[in-house]
Amino acid sequence: MAKITFNYFSPGWIFSLAQIIIIGLNSNQTEIQCQCAKVVYDLNLHAARTTSGKITLEAGKKYPITVFFSEAAGSASMKLEWSSANQSREVVPTSQLYSTSVATSTPTPTPTPTPVTTNFCANENGFCSFSGTQQVRYGANGQYFTKTFTNGTDCTNAIFGDPIVGVVKTCAVLASRPTPKPRTLPLELTQRTTKKLIGTSSRKPTPDFFRQNIKQMEQHPFDGVILQLNAGYEVFKKTPYPDNAFTQDQNDLAVTKSSILTDNFVIMSSGMENGWDWFNDADWAAAEKNIQNFAKTAAAGSFRGIAFDPEAYSQTPWVYNQQPQHNNKTFEEYQRQVRKRGAQFMSVLQATNPSTKVLTLSLLSLIKDLLSETTDPVKLQQQLVNHDYGLWPAFINGMLDAMQSNSVIIDGDEGAYYFYNADWFKGMSLQVIPKDAKALVDPVNSMKYDNNVKVGQAVYMNFVLDLFEPSDKSWYGIKMPHFLSPDDRLKLLEYNTYYGLQTADQYVWIYGENMDWWRNNIPNGAEDAIRRAKTKIQNGQPLGFDINAATNSARNKCKVINPAC
Predict the structure, then answer these.
(1) 3-class secondary structure for 110-140?
(2) Which residues pair with 84 in a beta bridge?
(3) Confidence (pLDDT) at 184
(4) Domain assignment of residue 161, yes or no
(5) What letter would DSSP give residue 79?
(6) Does residue 431 carry a pLDDT above 80?
(7) CB atoms inside a 10 Å sphere around CB 115
(8) Which of 373, 400, 413, 523 is in the most buried spot, having the most CB atoms within 10 Å?
(9) Both 531 and 450 in a single domain?
(10) How far is CA 491 from the centre of its chain?
(11) For residues 533 and 522, what is the distance between their CA atoms, to the nearest angstrom?
């Protein structure tokens, strides 16, 4: 394949050849599969290099072979070569490549007869999740292999074998349960009852406060909290926190149990110490030690995982031209390095908790300003260079590179802070996060993104209840709810909580400043409004009122003072 200068594409070739071979590829990311074995697997981003593998085949016999290639940044080139004891290394001649399908002589399971009642559970390379023992079939176009599993299985050729070479396959459970429906609104009752509210504020409880006040904290309308460790909340530091800085927090969380606050997270900020560098292995070793201790502390309390805030309140790791080596390293070089670190970040979390949940306060929804203009990967790449979060998608792709089938990343959609229309919540849930944002996802991670990235929503108390201090209003500007009546502001809180829960896969986090859920500094009527919304969702009831007339009137008044309202 000749050099190609545009970025983010993943071609594939399917053909057959005959020889005893060593296969080499010179590219960004590569995978080669013969029907009987995986010969080369090198899906880590890298500069041009040769990757090889060995396999013994019968001379003169044709074997199906598949080549997957993915390019992320910079120029792309790829060559398929072979060699053997009696063959010098050379590019595989076209005379030895055949386009017709070739059946393998390797014994394989008997294909499942069709038709049969099935329930789709995963795309190829995803995870087929179910409880108990079930038969699962794998394949496409009437060609399937079936095996029996307990409590889920990976949907891969490695598990099932390949019933139809070169075709994207799916997994389906042979069961009588109702076939899952595509994401629509409103959601089914069985889904609604899994919805969770996470309470948080600018003054976060620490593990010792959590232990001492757990009974009082359980009285609020939340299913979980976000805690801050006593050691701190930033991990990208040049010197790690000492291990003993986490000991008391781990002890406090280990003895604190709750049947109500079941979905808890430890906050971790992306702010980095001045001079910290993605390319400095010593800096990363310090960060990795901190990430490990944060994960261990969360695990001590059986927490769901980490709440990761990509918004840096100190030096930012995401702006290319603010990085220490931006003068002598290209944006593409930083992307590759940040992606490598994202994979290491996720690997550390999963080493402590193989089914970890990472509640990002925003994932790719953080870049919806660019996505609203274009979903063309080439144009997005050009705009990321100068964007405030230009390196964030690379980190996310690294997380996806390392993601295991039981782990979950939640896009917390912090941009929902300023929503007051149900269609905006629905648009993020049905279009922006699951579809538009995939323009920033490497195609090799597409299935992981589909299966393991979930939609969250956010509610901002300061906005809906107009809790901004005068100094805040000079920064944020006067907002629409300032012109609502106090009763209508409480209705807006119920409205946003209701549609947040309706459109989220599981989590809605409710955040406020100038207030404190856990020390009873709560605006009058706020908890009742949240409870009403939660109860209606749990019972499958409609919201029961429309706030649009009030918010439209308030917005018109607001625009006289603040045109950005």
Answers:
(1) CCCCCCCCCEEEEECCCEECCCCEEEEEEEE
(2) 87
(3) 52
(4) yes
(5) -
(6) yes
(7) 6
(8) 413
(9) yes
(10) 32
(11) 17
* Tokens 């670190």 -> residue: 341
Question: Minimal CA–CA distance to 465: which of 401, 407, 530, 509?
Answer: 530
Query: Each residue of 54-113: pLDDT tens digit?
Result: 777 777 777 677 665 555 444 566 777 777 777 778 888 877 776 544 333 344 444 444
Structural domains of the chain, count = 3
Q: Are residues 143 and 80 in the same domain?
A: no
Same domain, 158 and 286: no
Rg (C-alpha) for the chain, rounded Å, is 26
Bridging pattern class, strands 143-150 and 133-140: antiparallel
Distance CA 267, CA 203 (A): 12
- Please enumerate in sequence order all residues whose Cβ is within 8 A of that of 183, keeping only pairs 6 or more positions apart, or say none: 429, 430, 434
Q: How far apart are CA 185 and CA 65, in angstroms?
A: 43
Greatest Cα-to-Cα distance within the chain, rounded to the nearest angstrom: 86
Characterize the bridge pairing of strands 305-309 and 357-360: parallel
What's the pTM?
A: 0.69
The single residue listed with the structure tokens 């398929």 is: 80
- What one-letter code names the amino acid at 527? E
Residue 559 Cα to chain centre, angstroms: 36
**What domain range includes position 74?**
12-96
CA 446 to chain centre: 11
Residue 328 is given by DSSP the state T
**Cis geometry, peptide bond prior to residue 186 (ω within 30 degrees of 0):** yes
**Is residue 21's pLDDT more than 90?**
no
Task: Give the CA count within 13 Å in the CB-facing half-sphere of 499.
Answer: 23
- CB burial of residue 103 (10 Å; 0-12, 13-18, 19+): exposed
At residue 46, the 3 state secondary structure works out as coil
Q: Convert the pLDDT of each residue in 186-235 to its tens digit.
A: 444 334 458 999 999 999 999 999 999 999 999 999 999 999 999 999 99
**DSSP of 435-462:** TGGGGGS-GGGHHHHHHHEEE-EEEEHH
Q: At 119, phi and psi to the nearest 5?
A: -125, 115
Same domain, 151 and 280: no
| Residues 381 and 447 placed together within one structural domain of the fold | yes
Number of residues assigned to the chain: 565
The region of weakest confidence among 146-155, 210-219, 361-370 is 146-155
- Residue 401: is its pLDDT beyond 50? yes
Q: Helix, strand, or coil here: 40?
A: strand
Q: Are residues 209 and 136 in the same domain?
A: no
Count other C-beta atoms under 10 Å from residue 526's C-beta: 23
Does one domain contain both 246 and 147? no
Domain boundary among 42, 61, 96: 96
**Whether residue 172 has pLDDT greater than 90:** no
Residue 113: the pLDDT is: 40
Same domain, 201 and 346: yes
